[in-house]
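Structure representation.

___
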Amino acid sequence: MNSDSAISSLSPPLRPKSKKNPNAIADDREVITRPAGQKSASRKCANLECYVRATEKPLKACARCKAMMYCSRECQAAHWPTHKQWCQNNVDHVAELAVADALGFDGGLPPGMTLVELDQKLEKWVKFHNSLLMAATIHALSLPRDLKRARQYLLRVKVSWRPDNGGVAAKFFRVDDAFLIDMESARAKGGVWPPSIDHVVKLREESEAMRRGTVAAVALECEPLAMQIVPFGSLRDLSPLRIQQQWKETLIRIAESGRRFTRFE
């Protein structure tokens, strides 16, 4: 068996099951406000020592969390010490959404949709608009002027379900608002925010240590789901880019159109 086909059989060790009753939930909303790992839209192997592009070698998702992509079993195993906690967070996140669904949670959900389904559709929307979200982050944070601003700010993007999406993943959600939030204010929000920021910091430190560039991120909010992080790595010298001041209008317009992003207009 070659290394590529073995990825799906590489099952990370499961932690011991909780002794708590999974149905013992004081408040339904608590279930959907825990760290959800990250929404990954990467087209590169997650192992920073490899980082091969999907255009160079086929990538496959982690069999457990489906969030990280790897080019081989060896790369997945090498990245496991880094990915371990957030792999578990992603798995727990989906399980907790399923528990809330089983308990009948329906606060703010689109008619006829479960939390798990909403989260899955958000994943598809993020993957389609990956380049658009990254471009908006670059211009919103003024990274062409100073890459270090990625350490100081997140781009906070609020989206909502579009009933008129016609079953098209690119139109599942519309962008309602987008604005900067500094790291201190983000941490002060509590809940999932501090551990999510810690995750971005860790990704950035590892990437910079490997001289792969820095990492910026979107804090994506879609009620009633918890905030989820969308990181963008390999950001190097961006000084040749001219900062687009109308980044928010462009983000909203292109997301609304459902077309693939090519460049800021």
Observations:
- The longest strand covers residues 173-182.
- The chain is about 35% helix and 15% strand.
- Helices lie at 28-31, 73-102, 115-128, 130-140, 183-188, 193-209, 247-257.
- The beta strands are 60-61, 69-70, 153-161, 173-182, 214-221, 228-235.
